[in-house]
Specification:
- The protein is of the alpha+beta class and 105 residues long.
- 33% of the residues lie in helices and 26% in strands.
- The protein has one domain: Translation Initiation Factor IF3 (2-Layer Sandwich).
Length: 105
Amino acid sequence: MSTLRTFIAASALITTIGCTWVPLTDNGAGVDIVDAEKISACEPLGEVTSSTQDKIVVARSSGKVQEELFVLARNEAAVQGADTIVATAAPENGRQSFSIYRCRS
């Protein structure tokens, strides 16, 4: 019976590690992620930094961590009136910085 419990606990942990915890808001969905060369006609509005857990007992998938960082940045950019973000650094230890812009009128 302990083998079954161990298997169930391990399965739950693996499922949890693969999940994205942060929902994209309706306003955040209107924020684009672009490369720096696409913002020449945009108004700079500032910077945001996203952070999420990159480890929950074991290291999380870098793809899932990146996805959460983008979602958090898009949500925060929308709150600040931006419609576009550009990553200014690579993700490191569950943190990433972004410049935020207003590109649409």
